[in-house]
Amino acid sequence: MKSLYLALTVAIATVSLTTTAKADTVQARCDVFPKGDDRAKSSGLCTFSQRQGNVGIQLKDGTRYDLTPVGNKPNTYRDQKGRSALRESGLGDRGQIYRLTSESIFVYWDAAPYDQQGSSTMSTSVKGTSAKGTSAKSSSMKGNSSVAAAQPLMGKPVSRLSDLVGARAGQAENTVIQRGYRFVKNAPASNAVYSYWIEGKTNNCVAALTKDGRYQSFVYTNAAKDCRK
After folding, report:
1. How many secondary structure helices (H) and strands (E) does the chain include?
2. What are the two backbone dihedrals, phi and then psi, of residue 152, each rounded to the nearest 5 degrees?
3. Rounded Cα distance, 214 and 229, in Å
4. Exposed e or buried b for every residue in 185-200, given b needs 16+ CB within 10 A?
5. What is the pLDDT of residue 98?
6. DSSP-derived secondary structure for 125-164
7. How far apart are CA 49 and CA 67, in angstroms?
8. Interior angle at CA 142, CA 43 and CA 128, nearest 5
């Protein structure tokens, strides 16, 4: 009888722990910036977990960051190698920023423009991306080498429009146009709206996310899929 009771207790505890672990883990989008650089070296789906103050971030390529809180100091952590890390709230309710020794990780709760399963094209492009944002040619681009060399990484922030993040869309739209972007279409998404634009000099497709009347992000996306009317 005691053995049966013990087995039931262990089983219940296991189910409880599993449920808690799942509840504390979410899929997000992570942009990783080298320290002192305003261009992301990678951008893609990631998993974010937080349990009892401990933070775990795992990128699509398998790179993992485990952060442990330091004493009673708020937003202060140590990574798995004992190096200091800080959490900042510069993204508001859109996500969190983690400042590590050699890089910064911007975690966005909205994983767009990546789909839930990710993309083999995106992961290949990320692995071929240098710190300056140039990417290696993938096999899918061999048909047109001149276009392939200029095509940006899908999900890469648009540096020419980064200063407009947080601006009111109605007021800043003229600035987007003045900088050489041509409006294509709008696409509502739950409580937000995506607008798609063609970049004048390159013909690359740009997705602008607007929420609560303000621009939340500008990223490159799939021209064939998103910039067709």
Report:
1. 5, 12
2. -80, 165
3. 23
4. eeeeeeeeebbbbbbe
5. 93
6. HHHTB-TTS-BPPPGGGTT-HHHHHHPPPTT-B-GGGGGG
7. 10
8. 30
- Output the pLDDT for position 153: 67
The alpha carbon torsion through 127, 132, 133, 138 (nearest 10 deg) reads -50
Average pLDDT of the chain, as a whole number: 76
197 phi, psi to nearest 5 deg: -135, 150
Pair 79, 67: CB distance under 8 Å:
yes
Nearest-angstrom CA–CA distance, 159 and 68: 32
For residue 179, what are its two tokens? 């900088």
Predicted confidence (pLDDT) per residue in 147-178, tens digit:
333 566 677 788 889 889 888 998 999 999 99
Which residue in the block uniquely carries the two structure tokens 């048909």?
143
For 46-92, write each residue's pLDDT tens digit: 999 988 789 999 999 999 999 999 988 888 999 999 999 998 877 77
Tokens (6 digits) for 168 = 């009111």
Whether residue 157 is preceded by a cis peptide bond, meaning omega within 30 degrees of 0, is no
Residues 101, 93 contacting (CB under 8 angstroms): no
CA distance 96 to 104: 11
Of the given ranges (1-10, 12-21, 28-37), which has the lowest mean pLDDT?
Answer: 12-21
